[in-house]
Amino acid sequence: MATKTLAQWATNLSPSSLPASVRQAAVKSLYNYIGCAIGGSNHPAVTKAYDALSPFFGPATSSLYGSKGAVKTDAQHAALLNGIASHVHDYDDTHLATIIHPTGPVASAVLAYAEYKGSITGPEVLCALTAGIEASCKIGLAVWPEHYDIGWHITSSTGSVGAAVGVGKLMKLSEEQMAHAIGLAAVQVVGLREMFGSDTKSFHPGRAAQSGLLAALLAEKGYTSSPQALEAKRGWANVVAGGGTPKLEHYLSELGQKWEIEANAFKPFPCGIVCHPAIDGCIQLHQELQSKGLKPALIQKIEARVHPLVIELTSKRTPKDGLESKFSVFHGAAVGLLYGKAGPAQYADEVVRDQTVIDIRDKIDATADESLAADETYLTLYFADGSKLEKHTKHAVGSLEVPMSEEQLTEKFVDQAALVLSEGARQASDAAWKISEATDVAEVLRML
Amino acid sequence: MATKTLAQWATNLSPSSLPASVRQAAVKSLYNYIGCAIGGSNHPAVTKAYDALSPFFGPATSSLYGSKGAVKTDAQHAALLNGIASHVHDYDDTHLATIIHPTGPVASAVLAYAEYKGSITGPEVLCALTAGIEASCKIGLAVWPEHYDIGWHITSSTGSVGAAVGVGKLMKLSEEQMAHAIGLAAVQVVGLREMFGSDTKSFHPGRAAQSGLLAALLAEKGYTSSPQALEAKRGWANVVAGGGTPKLEHYLSELGQKWEIEANAFKPFPCGIVCHPAIDGCIQLHQELQSKGLKPALIQKIEARVHPLVIELTSKRTPKDGLESKFSVFHGAAVGLLYGKAGPAQYADEVVRDQTVIDIRDKIDATADESLAADETYLTLYFADGSKLEKHTKHAVGSLEVPMSEEQLTEKFVDQAALVLSEGARQASDAAWKISEATDVAEVLRML
């Protein structure tokens, strides 16, 4: 029943049936996504992919956001390339219960298709995005945590289904077609955690977007799949659950009751979310040091007690470049302490290799403490005179308890866009905030 | 080391280093593939996919074989569509130790790229095809049987890696680039067994071809992956092994020593290979009945003792159409007995719904016998007068012990092509046999 349940729910969802809080979460998710896609657009991974694939581009209908300026490509390649760009700085959003970054795969497909199709409204896009994100997160919950533990990159391994559902909404697929689209997406399982630290990590959500779009396109023309694609003995959930017992029925029964998009958080720092509490604490300590007139160079030792996942995922002691530094809680903490900021500019290669940063980084000890919550950290700075400074971060900024405000989201967007666009970062931000009210989203997307 | 071992071996393989028997196996595999791709080209699944995707086609460089006539599309879509066509009648080849149908994903990508690139010779294509097939089958062996048991369609789940290696050979990738291509392909795991019986089954090898091509294209431009993509704790093999212990090192150490392509068999009948022994036996019984002047209608009951996998995979008692009949040992046996033939024409919808066929089909009992080999069957026909006729098939035609001859392969090709092409089936066959000697394979492919 799970595939049918999801197809039926998604098919019946309408823009007017979204609760206001859900709609607001979708607006923020979409806005944050566009900022990230612009911010990542001039990353070498995107450039390499663009160069590799431009000989195969079809009719230019769908924009590549950001640095490629007015460049368009066919919808399938736009979904792939914007999807890569949106994730390449590890700066996107996070559904905290599953560590899924849900908007990238869904929005990359939905927007590329909307611009191709034309005359699709902002509210329709929000509805499609919401349907897709609910799909990804619910099936992700059903196989969490075993699925992630054995090594799947859960953002993309669930993202193709979300993208198919999202595009399927814009196509107004019938329930039966939607089920086929879900099945066609479910057989394209993309993303292994082994790729973290290489270009292929960001390929994952891009390819998931493209795979989901492809699934919906085929289903629209009557291509058939299994109506039990998700729940069958040899369907998606059992195959990818890694020995766990998928709880599809349970989570899908909550569709429309409990909205996962409301639990979508936005990253304040362009790196793995697990090290955000330590960075947040260090930024607060930077401010305290400043107010006391103390220089970070006076610090002799820094102790961090962190959740065990921080050590497991982000313990690169000596990152060589910006990419590796995203998997280094030590780098994030160091720039937080030194500069009071850990934005894209602080993850540039030059900063990672800066001796001042390295000196602070090497003074940091991090120990796993199983008693801590995932977004909690204790930091202690030790000074030469024997004094110390402590900071307990109970919830990091960007968590559900301390969400980023619209102003903080705008600053994040503009900071990213300013690094990529020669001008117009603020205008792009204004346009992106308004996309949800557009009568034809294609007109807005062309301006990004 | 597994990823490096495979990349190194593939990079060093040259057309002149292929043993004659390997070269001959590659020629047959390629020829058989082309016949199947032509034969499947007017199947509704291919037509639906073509209609869905034609708005996105890029520059027309690569041919769609068969019914689409002189139609070309971009190499990525050609890989997808030809890959679907090659598998849609379940008539392709089989690496018996893994039940992988290895040529579809690899050849669909290699030929589409060769035609795009131009000036690629027949021997280069054979070398690329061989490298790709060895890659797919070796990594398939490493995760067999657990990988298949939990529900992956092993043809496509290994096929993207094979396709990437094959295309990578034509690109003359460095060893490092080849390793990245393998990694990029390994994260695109396509194909669930739940889809058997729907259009999505044939989508699997097509998408694997396209995914492998994409992986090689990205790697060629420096897109990076993990150098331990296959063997890492959270790399391909461990993630997809379904609880088994992958034996990558063992099988990859045999690269170039033991050639899997030599163990590639060609299907004499367009259906799941497990029911071939029963069909072969029924065709032999048809000939005996004819020589004795006995009509099949005189048969009261037919007993078949078969390998348990036959019951597990092909026990559809009342198939509704041609597609379902491929998963019915009863249908295959019935047309074998009635017509002495089980080619594509005998799997048409009309034949499946023909009352004469249904009458015979309903007289068949099949029981699993664990003592039998996978390609062995005992058949007994019971007649109204109390007499009976028995047939023991020790090895089915198309097995390694009773391989299809070049004449049988040619008949298979021409039978398929004649159903699709208004004329020129024999000429297409002649061209396909000669592709391995071409100085530019693009010139031959245009004629198909």
From TrEMBL, chains A, B:
One of its GO terms (molecular function) is lyase activity. Residues 5-248 form the MmgE/PrpD N-terminal domain. Gene3D superfamilies: 2-methylcitrate dehydratase PrpD. Residues 269-427 form the MmgE/PrpD C-terminal domain. InterPro entries: MmgE/PrpD_sf, MmgE/PrpD_sf_1, MmgE/PrpD_sf_2, MmgE_PrpD, MmgE_PrpD_C, MmgE_PrpD_N. It comes from the Eukaryota. Belongs to the PrpD family. This is 2-methylcitrate dehydratase. It comes from Oleoguttula mirabilis.
